[in-house]
Amino acid sequence: MPQIPTPAMPKKILIVCSHFWPSMGGVESRMGQFSTSLVNSGYAVTVLTQHIPHRSSNDFHGVLINGVDVNQFPAAIRDAVASGEFDTCILVQDPLGVIIWSIEDMTPPSNTRVLIQPIINEDGYSRWKDRPEFRSRLKTILKAADATLVMTKSGPDTRFMRSEGIDYTYLPNATTQVEPAGDFRAQYGIPREKFLVLHVANLYWVKNHIGLIDALPDIPVDWQLVMVGNVSGENDCGNAVMAKLAGRPEIRFIPGLSREWVAAAMQGADVVVLASKGEGSPITILEAMSHGKPWLATPECGAANDHVGGVICELKDFKAHLQVLADDPALCHSLGEISYGHWKQCYSWPVAIAGWIDLIEHGRSSHSFEPDQALRDRMDDARRKIAAALVKDASSTGRRSIESQTIAPVVGAGEKQLERNTKPLFSIIVTTHCRPALLARALLSLLTQTFTDFEIVLVSDEGSFETKTVANSYLRQEDIFLVLPNAKGPSETRNAGIYHAKGQFVMFLDDDDTYHPEYLQVLVANEGFKIDAVNYVNYTLLTETREGGSAETVSAEDIEVGGKDIRSLLIDNFIPGNAFVFATAMAKSVLFDPQLNSHESWDYMIALLFKYEFNFIDTYGPIVHESLRESRNNDAKKSGATALDYLSIYRKWRHADQEVMAARQAMLQSQGLDIPSGLL
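Structure (tokenized):
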């Protein structure tokens, strides 16, 4: 923990939040732990919050509570910030609440630092993201603050900040490991051998209790689903959940548990689930992690997408993932260990409070809150095991309706994957169509590279369960997965991949091909690599049979391309698209042509040849896996489409050189098309 000055009088900190002890919920738990962590670090902390009648004291473990009637809350916030009494004022709430707006158009005293952490989840963001005036006013308030904080790496809070050009600091939520009150299973008569699935959420519509109940219609007899939560102000939600549970007597609902008994439930559970339609940074998942439990969460669960030790998937896929964990206790236990490790390294309060202290003392924080590589490697291995089990189950049952969501963000139509703080060296664009086994092989060849400063941009033109499961297994947190079901072939998917690429250089990999394991390392170390040219390398051609989802090598041959004049590319494609690497800015200067039936990569490289220098590097990089069955291009040749594509490319990229025109004429003649050379 960083050292802070010890002045004669401790610095005074004001935390403004809507709810606080003794009411119970995620906000209350987080603000209670946050405020006491600051007190333990030597600060004088006041919490300004709404008054509740059953609050018996204005002291909470050394934190002074100032409870204000709801009607007076905005004015009280404004007065407190303007008073100059506090060294730092920290405002925390959803922008749909009153707290952030209370300081609109005001200038705090020069001795007061204002930090704002807007809690923006998918549900709330959808209500105002298309309201320009709301966005503009919020932007003005946040830009005026000394620091604006986000709790997710790529969630709606971060997307809003980036879209509006607001500087922000990533400072994740945290939790304390609460001591369990006792033996939860013994207390509630749940046998040890039961697979205990725990859902912890108060009864709000956004928590989606009914959705979870419906997603688990036939709970196995050796499972036990327990739902823990308190009745909220949304009485209609509570009534609807109770009515639903009345028809599902096998589900246990336990209201009114203390924090200590919730901790006991966590400790006794096999897995914790969260079915929410919108979360900023769910405390339930962090609490599960602090107790070493694996977890499942929906993609709308905000910062959960940043965590390891669990799975992000659609609610309708919960049961399939739960079955995998129930069937493999060792995997379930391993995920729990990973979950705990990530909490301890990044989300425990001794770690998180260091970031807050930096902001309070210096106005900035440089903490990254990233798990170590060993933890990431263990999580990658767990994902592969989960994916293998899901694919096996889908294959044996014929089920194709499950759609898993990758842990990396899925970008919908019209939504751009946004800038990272640090760009990778390479963006490797992988396009795929209904070949999950081959795709897994391709992605594994990337994950085993000896040089690791790259991102994978995986683009699929279909959203099958099998493809998404492979993505969920092999992609890392820094990778991108795009599902574009309306894309018209590989040209549009490659264009989308280029559009979203954030690396300094772009590379391609087809879903049935691989890279030599040291390819990237050799590129980085090669003195002949030119940053301002289109670099290309030799490749290995591997012929294989593909039967029953498996591939068997028939032959392998190293193909040298450096001895051939690059102008030969104007006549025929002798370099596979996987063998090129060049600056992302170059890649974005041209497009793959979606009108072509074949040879889109060749056309794209000719476009680059007309604009940039080409540079050969004498090394072997990609392995092109060719099936003994005819490829798509050969199928096109049989239909006559290839000759027409060649003609289209020749006319598109006309060349005045007589040798080139004559060679083009001969190529077309070999395909049964006789065109005068002067037209080529």
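The longest helix spans residues 373-397. Confidence is low (pLDDT under 50) at residues 395-421, 630-640.
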